[in-house]
Amino acid sequence: MADNSGFLDSVKLYLKGGDGGNGCLSFRREKYVPLGGPNGGNGGKGGSVYLLADRNLTTLLELAYHPHRQAERGQHGKGSTKDGPYGEDLVLRVPCGTSVLRNGKLVSDMLEDGQRYLAAKGGAGGRGNTAFKTQANTAPHFAEKGEPGEEVTLRLELKVLADVGLVGFPNAGKSTLLSRISAARPKIADYPFTTLNPNLGIATHKGKSFAAADIPGLIEGAHEGKGLGHKFLKHIERTRVLVHLVDPSGFDRFNAQQSVKVIAAELKKFSPKLALKPRIIAVNKADLPQAAEAYAKIKKTCLGKKVFLISAFTGDGVDKLLDEVIRELNSAPIEKPAEPQAPAIARHYMEPLFTVERTPAGLLAVKGREVDRLVLTTNFDHPEGVIRLRNIFRKIGLNKALAKHGVQDGDTVVIAGREFDWSDAAFRDRPLRRLRLVGRAAREARAKRPRHPKQYHG
């Protein structure tokens, strides 16, 4: 849930690609053209849903207000072989630094401005009856329905993109330092947990610019989620340099020296990579009487670390701190985006056309991507379309597979969520060799055919 600042770093989306348009069942009907033939157009492809990284966005709040999103469906085909227009793609903008997770696995890490990710693919348009015209069936009386669009559930997690992360216990002066080195104006007050969400600012020092993030205060046990530790720590995973601000008065039951060790331990426990990042220690509030003593003790115990005494309020020592930050940034590597999770070894296998299993309720369930597509695109209002589906099932051996599982007349067979009553007699029929025109139009066409005149001999 977002707070009053409008910042939101996690959201769940329910996305659906647009359905494909239905194919058209139509015949050419013109004067003096009794056998014009089929002219039904194909349906248009449904629009797809894309995620687009936008550097001008800083929160996922807008997506949270409308988590259910669907792209436009394709238009239906028309007569005169007119194909339906494609559905318009739906583009959802997300902040740079957004991780896209599907079923708990990372599928895309959107770090660069303009990066796109196909989230939900639109369904293909159904074919009109013109597409099924053959020499054996010159007037097909059926057309396909459009395929349904892909449905997905995604979890988006935003991790702030910054070069420098300001960390430390609450009320250490992180927000004050950010306001000192940049134009950012975070909320500042003399009590812990004033900052509840990361604040970003662009700092410029001696011609060098970098992005700095003020991370809300951490407490002991943050790596376990205490004090919303998980929510805060994830925002410094992508930083290159950490600036650890220390309050010389300490925090809670920890003095200044102990607070340095506690924060360092929390970073390491949350992620070993955080412990390897360059970390600069800055003892803040130099105007306090105990600041000089705390600075001397920390510098003595933290060998190998750069330690500075600064006052974020007055600006004393801040320039020297920024000099060191620039030096560390020049040598710190730029982290590469995380690769989507994939199996270590690529395994290629032939997916079966279908599988048959009996459900606990006694129904026979047929599963398979191609079989599902055939059922979903068949228009059961067109008898010839049903006959075509039945013939395809016979050719791929579905009737034999069901017979092995003991199917009987009257049993219910489930395919693509649709229930069918099994009839063995339908599959014993021979497939139609030729389909004839039926109805009034066919009779009128046959009546207009020229007849051979009788031959008379004188």
Features:
disordered C terminus; 3 domains; single chain; disordered N terminus; GMP Synthetase, Chain A, domain 3; 458 residues; five-stranded mixed β-sheet; Spo0b-associated Gtp-binding Protein, Chain: A; six-stranded mixed β-sheet; 23% helix; Rossmann fold; 21% strand; 18 strands; alpha/beta
Task: Kindly describe this structure.
The protein is of the alpha/beta class. The protein folds into 3 domains: 10-158, GTP1/OBG domain (Spo0b-associated Gtp-binding Protein, Chain: A, Distorted Sandwich); 164-331, Rossmann fold (3-Layer(aba) Sandwich); 355-447, GTP-binding protein OBG, C-terminal domain (GMP Synthetase, Chain A, domain 3). The chain has 12 helices and 18 strands. It has helices at 61-65, 174-181, 229-233, 256-270, 272-276, 291-301, 318-331, 369-377, 383-395, 398-404, 424-428, 440-447; strands spanning 10-16, 49-54, 68-70, 90-95, 98-102, 105-110, 116-120, 151-158, 164-167, 199-205, 208-214, 241-246, 279-283, 307-309, 355-358, 364-367, 412-415, 418-421. The strands form 4 sheets. The chain has a 6-stranded mixed β-sheet with strand order 10-11-9-12-13-14, sandwiched between helices. Strands 3-1-8-5-6 form a 5-stranded mixed β-sheet. It has a 4-stranded mixed β-sheet with strand order 15-16-17-18. β17 (412-415) and β18 form a beta hairpin. It is elongated, with a radius of gyration of 34 Å. The termini are far apart.
